[in-house]
Amino acid sequence: MKNKIYIFDTTLRDGEQVPGCQLNTVEKIEVAKALEELGVDVIEAGFPISSPGDFKSVVEVSKAVKEPIICALTRAVKGDIDSAVEALQFAKHKRIHTGIGASDVHIEYKFRSTREKILAQGVEAVKYAKKFIEDVEFYAEDAGRADNAYLAQMIEAVIDAGATVVNIPDTTGYCIPSEFGEKIAYLNAHVSNISKAIISVHCHNDLGMATANTIAAVQNGARQMQVTINGVGERAGNTSLEETVMIIKTRKDLNAYTNINTRKIYPTSRLISRLMRMPVQANKAIVGRNAFAHSSGIHQNGILKNKFTYEIMDPKNVGIKSSSLALTARSGRSALNHHLERLGHKLTPAELDIIYQKFLTLADKKKDINDDDLRFLMGEKNNDATIKMQLLEVICGTPLKAMATVQLSINGKDQTSTAGGNGPIDAAFKAVNQLVGKKVGLEEYLVQAITGGIDDIGKVHVQISHKGVSYYGFAADTDVITASVKAYIDGLNKII
Ligand code: KIV
Ligand code: ZN
Questions:
Q1: Which of 39, 48, 261, 444 is buried deepest, with most CB atoms within 10 A?
Q2: What ligand 1 atom has the least distance to the C-alpha of 234?
Q3: What separation in Å is there between the alpha carbon of 229 and the centre of ligand 1?
Q4: Helix or strand or coil: residue 317?
């Protein structure tokens, strides 16, 4: 029989602590509903005592979401627990997540206390929470660096006090997988009442091992994973939901399953990235822009013969329509032929050879080759059916309202428009929209400096959506506003 692994999502609590990623209550409700659709078992909606905003969010999420358990975080302090109980009053299924530091460094320096007193405080907190709510999860903060014998003693005591779930956090992301797995095995072997509770793990990614540590814990008997979407969270983040869930789905030998509707993973990832204004790195496992994009000639050739040569997951299973073969100077004839056939061109091997040489010359200059470029290579006269930027003028500053004027060549005809906006980029994009007349959503906007000096080239990536489909645009320029408008136009050209 396969083991059910419970998914405890803490995007709205640990994930939302990230500076600049705060969500308002309306946004939190939107996220909570998306998490419910995704199929998570528990939503940690906030830390009610920490602020009136967090309190309100727990109340509103409790009202909006019915299937998952709604959980509220507390310290092992009565006032925190009272606040959490009140915030959870409307939740259909509710849980208190209370706990205290378990490592000597926390006990000595954070609490200036002793192991005995801290253990007693943890037990008291569980007993107190139990008076109001049946489902009480206890966390032993910094368990990753705690002494295993003391940790086992603490866990046994809180289970006796009524804890239904015992959470073992690697708060500082210090453990390595073999060690963290052994910690869970140790608790399974040395806590006499362990069968009365579910073991949960909560890992941080300071050394890039949150996912590996979580899976090692599952291999040693953990049955709940605390995770966030896109791995957002304190410092280097938390264990990411998409990675751990897809590991469990892909590696059947783990003999486990989750309730996650994996086809909702990608849309949920996009939602979090947009609302938290936190771009997902292109090479991020499962949800990054390149996660299913094959670019080298050898790989593309293999994929065209049989997907299993280089693909261990079906992109559809995570909500991505299909994998893609990016055309760059490293692509081979087979990928070029694949794209030409897709555009309706059937070539003989000799014709393909000729086009391939032209393609390589263009790819060396242009880096990314799009459908328009292929049509141009094939001699089609549609290269003027694109949008080109002819002129950009921007006025901005404080306290001026940003204004932008753009002149575009659309289908070979020059047109000009002016718009105001919240900033120069908003104004310029609005002016472009007025000319193009398409309903386009901006899903992601990312500026990067290439080397870091103030006279540096800015690279801009945008992700825009049109009729539910995402398109990417890219441009580089020493002027980031020009690069932004060019990247936006690059995306628009793909729609057209
Ligand atoms: O990292 C941590 O230890 C936590 C606890 C509150 C579970 O976030
Ligand atoms: Zn944490």
A1: 48
A2: 1
A3: 16
A4: helix
